[in-house]
Design brief:
alpha+beta, Rossmann fold, Dna Ligase, domain 1, D-amino Acid Aminotransferase, Chain A, domain 1, 4 domains, 5-stranded parallel β-sheet, 14 helices, 22 strands, binds adenosine monophosphate, binds glycine
């Protein structure tokens, strides 16, 4: 089979790494990919939003399966476009990806189908938003309705801060059109978990549990990022929490999407807040999480290709996914300044040193090749991912890799996985 992976981050390197192990594969492409995917696939110089060029390539080269990593092409309707040309593709349709593309839509869906989530209001008017903020009180959460590359969520500690965030968004200064409508919601406390499933719209296969680390600094301090590290399994997802997530969150959502005429096929990612044995839904994503995808795919024992293909064919009935017993931990190494403006072009050294460490793989995200070296080219640069017989052993192995790699100004969290150890 000829397979095309769309995207160029750590998630897509992990997908390429896993797909490359499939005996069903004959040729693998990645668009646009990165220097890491180039080791396993042929990179194509096509951006994730160049839908016509991606279609032309897949059509001419008779690609048997296209796997879409990021949200942007999904929201632009890549799945609908490919399918209308008879091409198989893994991912939700444009209408289904709206569950991530509009936070207002996703909150209204949750309300309609009784999915537990924070109390909220949706606003386009500043005065009404301000009244809601005053009546709710702080801390309070302000979210841009549309896609904002993971940056559209403001946790406001005071009502004043919340009102300013709303004004910034509604006046179009922050996040452009994505912020022309805002969701304002109750601030939830507890421990977060990333709960991902694969579904064909009927059958649902839960993936192993995982936990992300959103904040930039140790101890969950500082601004939120796309994710500074992740591990799997996540002990916060006990058997009871797993059942509740499936029964109260995932099943009604998959059924609700079908009832709304938006049948969901692909990965559905629920960001959960767990507290006192109860779950509430923070958000839905229409794709694999990044970095969660990296530890998850390292733990996946089954060949992923038949599963992806079955979803593209809307027939998961005979599919199952097996997992390795080992734990996996991913530590993200980021550029100086991230998640704000960050440096680029710094030479990365030590990648050759880690190549021999057992049960460890370095997934590339924001890297570029330059004169035979590898340089930084994004906020999140590498995902150093390791297996271990326990989470503690996986943490030790991952940080062994991290300590061998360096560049000017690099930053990473030194407490990835600590919450799992505390349980
Ligand atoms: P979202 O993109 O909606 O998941 O928001 C990104 C991050 O913001 C989440 O992972 C949480 O850390 C935080 N967050 C979002 N909504 C809330 C909420 N209602 N209460 C507390 N934290 C939240
Ligand atoms: N790591 C969070 C996300 O992928 O949205």
């Amino acid at each position: 089979m000829k397979i095309l992976v769309i995207g160029g981050g750590g998630r897509e390197h992990a997908l390429v790494w896993k797909i490359a192990q499939s005996p069903l594969l004959t040729k693998l492409y990645c668009a646009p990919g990165n220097p890491g995917t180039a080791l396993l696939a042929e990179n194509l110089p096509i951006g994730v939003d160049q839908l016509d060029k991606l279609l032309e390539f897949a059509y001419k080269n008779k690609i048997d399966l296209t796997v879409v990593g990021p949200e942007q092409p999904l929201s632009l309707g890549i799945v609908d476009l490919f399918e209308s040309h008879g091409l198989k593709v893994f991912g939700p349709s444009q209408k289904a990806a709206f569950i991530e593309g509009s936070k207002a839509f996703s909150k209204d869906l949750m309300r309609k189908y009784d999915v537990p989530t924070a109390a909220y209001g949706v606003f386009t008017d500043k005065t009404e938003a301000e009244a809601f903020i005053k009546s709710t009180g702080a801390p309070i959460v302000v979210k841009a309705d549309g896609l904002a590359a993971g940056k559209g969520v403001i946790i406001a500690q005071t009502c004043q801060e919340a009102v300013e965030a709303v004004n910034d968004m509604l006046s179009g200064n922050a996040f452009g059109a994505a912020g022309s409508r805002v969701v304002i919601e109750e601030f939830l406390t507890g421990e977060e978990a990333s709960f991902l499933v694969i579904t064909d719209g009927r059958k649902i296969i839960p993936l192993a549990s995982a936990q992300d680390h959103k904040a930039i600094f140790d101890g969950d301090k500082g601004p939120n990022t796309g994710g500074m590290g992740a591990y799997s399994p996540a002990p916060v997802v006990t058997k009871e929490i797993h059942e509740k997530a499936m029964e109260l969150v995932i099943k009604p959502t998959v059924e609700g999407m079908a009832a709304e005429g938006r049948p969901y096929r692909g990965v559905l990612y629920a960001g959960l807040m767990v507290k006192d044995g109860e779950v509430k839904t923070l958000e839905f994503n229409a794709r694999f999480g990044d970095p969660e995808c990296q530890p998850l795919l390292m733990r996946m024992k089954s060949d992923i290709v038949p599963v992806l293909l079955a979803v593209a064919d809307a027939d998961l009935a005979d599919s199952e996914i097996e997992w390795h017993d080992k734990a996996a931990v991913c530590v993200v190494m980021a550029s100086e300044g991230y998640p704000g403006d960050y440096a680029k072009g710094d030479e990365i050294s030590g990648l050759d040193m880690v190549a021999d460490i057992d049960d460890l793989y370095v997934f590339h995200a924001g890297t570029a090749a330059k004169n035979g070296t590898c340089v930084t080219n994004g906020g999140r640069v590498l995902g150093v991912t390791a297996l271990g017989s326990t989470v503690a052993a996986a943490i030790k192995n991952a940080y062994k890799g991290v300590s061998s790699i360096t560049w000017r100004g690099l930053q990473y969290r030194s407490d990835i996985g600590k919450k799992a150890l505390e349980r």
